[in-house]
Amino acid sequence: MNPFLEGNFAPWRMEGVADDLTVTGRIPRELNGTYYRNGPNPAFEPAGRYHWFDGDGMIHSITLRDGRAHYRNRFVMSAGLQEERAAGRATFPSLLELDPTEVPRIKNTGNTNIVCHAGRLLALMEAALPTRMAQGTLDTLGEFDFDGRLIGPMTAHPKMDPETGEMLFFGYSPFPPFLQYHVADRDGRLVRTEPIDVAWPSMMHDFAVTKDHVIFILCPLVFSFENVRERGGAFSWEPARGTRLGVMPRSGGNADVRWYDTDACYVFHPMNAYEDGDAIVLDVARYGRLDFMTPKGVENLSYRDDTAARMHRWRIDRRAGGVRSTPLDDVIAEFPRVDERRVGRRHRFGYAAARETGVEDGSRPEWTSVRKYDLERGTMETRRYGAGNGVGEPLFVPRTPGADEDDGWVLVLVYDHARNASRFDVLDARAITDDPVATVWLPHRVPYGFHGNWVGA
Ligand SMILES: [Fe+2]
What is the pTM of this model? Predict the structure, then answer.
């Protein structure tokens, strides 16, 4: 059995609405808006290989209003999913085993993240265009290409500049151009596209920005059709290449990118980055190794050994060159987040989903605690849920627009194995080890997924 089709990785296939959910505690009155969370849910049993990254996107929304909570979930109704519904079965291959003898058939599942920019709610997956969703109903409105201006895919991890309101993003491709950088202005118009030269085509999941720079993370997870033919997967782990960090001034272009070498590693997610004099500080969840094509098959990632993701701080010295990599923590962690108002600016606090020490649950990406990092003091606090529960990405929401950096709440979905159901916890960010301020009891489980965001009312 595929581990990504079992337990709380198994798809939830019903769409529905549940108003006025039971709440324990008190939902803060200031918390008015909607938490959107995206993740993969294969609507049909996969025909062949299946990886967590392949499932159809499903948006779960939890709206908090006047102390009450309402839930809704809908599939991202992609053209590919419509095709499969008409056929009554899965018709697309796994992304990790595209057939090199044909034009790749990629389903734009929109399954990875959901962001709101310039009033548009966009479901994102990195191999394709964004999919526009309707706020409120979660109806799928179709692919969105910035009025014809975006040619090529868009990362699932755009960055919203908290001062300019711009959305900065990139797209990568196994075909040239391997990497493009894009900027949408605060009104959502695509105003800039810049092809970026890279040394090899790679799976580039996320990037980082500062006030004046963008940082591309080129890891030695190399795409090639030879891989597909010879090894049965699209990506190979080639650590001899090392990992390279490409720093580009936001006012510059491809010719201004300077690459800095660091030890071979893989990073899905930075927490945040900022400038510190001539240095750039970049906090990341760093894997020592990432190979989709282990002897056990493409489903096997490293989530429990010494190469599993742990928070590290990279310090890129732009004057002398070089990258200093310092472990921040010895606990396995993923899905790092920062206060969105600090994106690209010096942050003191961050949050991540973490594995409790001593909790061993196999090789799947399951997390049992929420970890808060005080990076100024170098201390960590952990809200433990225990082996019987699994948590997703924690999301910080400030109490008010002008509140201090950790004055607010951490929102997190928690799956309870015994009840086979999920709940939504509102933690006080300044007291995350305390009992939740509020718990919203959801009508059913929410499968483990990827990323979510808060859209204030
Ligand atoms: Fe991600």
Answer: 0.96
